[in-house]
Amino acid sequence: MAIAPGYKENFQTLLTAAKDDNLCLLECTDVATGKPVMVICAVMRLGDGSMQLAPFAKLFDGNPYEELIPPSEPKAT
Fold first, then answer.
1. Where are the domains of the chain?
2. Closest CA to 23 of 8, 38, 2
3. For the chain, where are the alpha helices, taking DSSP H only?
4. Is residue 64 within 8 Å of residue 41, measured between CB atoms?
5. Does residue 1 register a pLDDT over 80?
6. Looking at the predicted structure, is the pLDDT value of residue 60 above 70?
7. Averaged confidence pLDDT in the chain
8. Do the beta carbons of residue 17 and residue 51 sit within 8 Å?
9. Per-residue pLDDT tens digits for 32-52
10. Which of 16, 28, 33, 50 is 20 to 30 A from 62, comparing alpha carbons?
């Protein structure tokens, strides 16, 4: 499965925000469960001195190695 262009753009935005020290960790509330979730956000500094946060990823509460199956390695031909 190919990675969609939108995901690539979002990843590049995260890399740029990290390089510019414009990332933060924010506690939000999951709409479906009402439980707190930790979210990685890019910080956008606006011209009036205020900031806007753009959420990009939720962090795992448990062990991600137990929650995900990585893609299979391509078979040698």
1. 19-60
2. 38
3. 5-19, 64-67
4. no
5. no
6. yes
7. 91
8. no
9. 999 999 999 999 999 999 999
10. 16
Give CA torsion, residues 32, 37, 40, 45, to 10 deg. Answer: 80
Output DSSP code: residue 32. Answer: T
- Measured in whole angstroms, how far is the alpha carbon of residue 27 from the centre of its chain? 13
CA–CA separation, 3 vs 8, rounded Å?
7
Q: CA geometry: angle at 58 spanning 38 and 19, to 5°?
A: 90
Six token digits for residue 7: 């995901």
Collapse the DSSP code of 70 into the 3-class scheme (helix H, G, I; strand E, B; otherwise coil) and give the result: coil
Q: Which pLDDT score, from 0 to 100, does residue 47 have? A: 94
On whether the pTM is more than 0.85, the answer is no
